[in-house]
Design goal:
Number of strands: 9
Number of helices: 9
Order of helices and strands: EEEHEHEHHHHEHEHEEH
Helix content: 25-40%
Radius of gyration: 18 Å
Strand order of the largest sheet: 5-6-7-3-8-9
Distance between the termini: 42 Å
């Protein structure tokens, strides 16, 4: 499979929306450097601008000040080439398309019907869906549908993977299982990954660095480096050192809320 990633650099970003005719600053001078192949988790209270920052990194929102670079390019140019993978809380699968056809959708949109399709069987194995190639979304569990969405986000062999609460709708047991699966997939391919989550333990388990955003307007109130080597076993959820880090993140969140 592919591998590696590109740096994502967020420099002094300000984003304001008009709400009932009045300006509302959602992000206030946010700066963040994501090294190639790193895994960054963004966490913060609802409305602090986490998802907006992800949309800016995707090139779907413009900034009022500052800039975002992927390598040395603007995000929208990178996205148009299919070099950014995206996974959201809602898998948004097309109900009439099979697992294989849903994963292939970005290739169809980009007009890459040729050799790029050859990687789909490998992706299906990677996300643990061998044997379900022709299944329709209605025949899959919630966790399986999310696995399809992750495979679809990887089908263009992206340098960057942006994920907005991809497991937020799953129960705790399934969410833990999907955390382990995502770690395995990331370790194999190493795209530069930014994960938006409300789960403190999920952030600490997966990420190299946990970036804590404070309430509106969104500002970075702390960055917690996670020292545990990968791969991280599920026994880590019971480790006192793990809990000490989650307490540090909790304290940063509580101080802002």
């Amino acid at each position: 499979m592919g591998g590696g990633g590109r740096a994502v650099v967020i420099e002094d970003v300000v984003k304001t929306f008009l709400v009932r005719g009045s300006p509302l600053t959602v992000l206030d001078h946010v700066s963040l450097a994501c090294p190639p192949g790193s895994f960054i988790a963004l966490i913060g209270p609802s409305g602090c601008g986490k998802s907006t920052l992800l949309r800016i990194a995707l090139g779907l929102e413009h900034v009022d000040a500052g800039r975002v670079l992927i390598g040395d390019e603007a995000p929208d140019a990178v996205r148009r080439r299919g070099e950014i993978g995206i996974a959201f809380q809602d898998p948004a699968l097309l109900p009439w398309r099979s697992v294989t056809a849903n994963i292939a959708l970005p290739l169809d949109v980009l007009g890459r019907r040729g050799t790029a399709r050859d990687r789909i069987p490998g992706l299906i194995r990677l996300v643990g869906l061998a044997g379900f190639e022709e299944a329709l979304p209605g025949e899959l569990s919630g966790g399986m549908r999310q696995r399809v969405a992750i495979a679809r986000s990887l089908v263009t062999d992206p340098d960057i993977l942006l994920m907005d609460e991809p497991f937020g709708a799953l129960d705790l047991i399934l969410r833990r299982q999907m955390n382990v699966e995502l770690q395995r997939i990331w370790l194999e391919r190493r795209p530069t990954t930014i994960l938006v989550t409300h789960g403190i333990d999920e952030a600490v388990f997966l990420a190299d660095r946990v970036v804590v955003l404070g309430g509106r307007p969104g500002r970075i109130v702390g960055i917690v480096d996670v020292p545990f080597p990968h791969p991280r076993p599920t026994t880590m959820f019971r480790d006192p050192a793990f809990h000490a880090l989650t307490d540090t993140v909790s304290a940063l969140l509580a101080g802002e809320e």
